[in-house]
Amino acid sequence: MLAKLGNEIHFSLVTADRDLGDACAYAGITPNGWQQVEKAQIYYASPGMGWLWRLWQVIRAFDGDAMHLNSFFSFRFSILPLIFWRVLKPGKPVIVGPRGEFSQGALALKSPKKRVFIALAKAVGLYRGVIWHASTEHEADDIRRVMGHKAEIRVAVDIACPPPDLAMQPRQPSSPLRLVFLSRISPKKNLLGAIQMLQPVTCPVVFDVYGPAEDAAYWASCQEAATQLPAHVQFNYCGALYPAQVPETMARYDLFYLPTLGENFGHVIAEALGCGLPLLIADTTPWRDLAQQKLGWDIPLGQPEQFVAAIESCSRMQAADYNTWRHSIRAWALANIGNDEAVEQNRQLFMNLDSAHEH
Q1: β partners of residue 233
Q2: I need a surface site. Which of 5, 188, 254, 354 has the fewest CB within 10 A?
């Protein structure tokens, strides 16, 4: 969004100074101060002592027109900033993008706590008058289901930018099928289900997992399940990646495997297509009808045998055919992801905020 609209809209971005679970800040940044990065002013917030006061000061000093929140349930980056904004900038517009947090799969996790917060927020009118940013019509339906039919919603699909130059590692004849899972290791992303569904696979498979293990108990159950896999299914945990490492890493695999419980967009799915990877995902994301488009499979989670069948069929494909397929997927991604329509929807998200806000 910043790259595509930064020349027309002045963005000031407040974000964490480190990746989830990291003990140290990113290299080469100055925490707790504004710095120009490409087309935006960015404030890298450190989590240490005084972060509450610093957040208050940042919002108080901000002289822009509106605030866009990139989550609904994040205390530090959504709930608290909204409360501070209501106090410091009463009447100024707020846009909230729940980012898939209202999908039924996501709401089912820690659901009593989430239901209490939603009820409380409605009772005190915390979200009265906000503009809701839905990434798809699916997500717009989720927002209405949770926040009511009067919610003001604007649909703007996330902008993803496939890498223009990429060396894809071709499929090697008679080698194991290379599967990659790249996401946070948390119940919503369903790594445990992904591992369990590999149990009956009969072809040789290498399954590499990338991502921060944010839920220690859940990660332990995933590791335990991995020990039960048959000998011809090799499981490897490869740690977390920096965003810049994602394309070259993904390009080394044959199949992107993510049976997630729910995504409002799924940036990592767009990235996989941009790297020419066929998808094997659940039917819980906006990426649907993949088989008809020859981009892979979107399968109901209740049909694990279909996931197995998809993996087996990939394994049986001739290497030359597989490589041709991957090139056609990448060509589709370059033509269809992050296109002008997506950019225009995001531009409209920020237009006419005052008139929308008034009613």
Answers
A1: 205
A2: 354
Residue 328 one-letter amino acid: S
CB 157 within 8 A of CB 345: yes
Tell whether the model's pLDDT for residue 6 goes beyond 60: yes
Which strand ranges, in their side-by-side order, compose the sheet holding 67-69?
67-69, 94-96, 131-134, 152-155
CA distance 281 to 322: 18
| Pairwise CA distance, residues 43 & 15, whole Å | 6
State the sign of the Cα–Cα–Cα–Cα dihedral 21, 27, 31, 35.
Answer: negative
Query: What is the pLDDT at residue 359?
Result: 45
Complete domains list, the chain, with CATH: 2-160+340-358 (3.40.50.2000), 177-336 (3.40.50.2000)
Distance CA 42, CA 56 (A): 16
Helix (H) or strand (E) holding 281: strand 279-282
H helix count then E strand count, the chain: 14, 13
Q: What is the pLDDT of residues 20-42, one digit of tens each?
A: 778 899 999 999 999 999 999 99
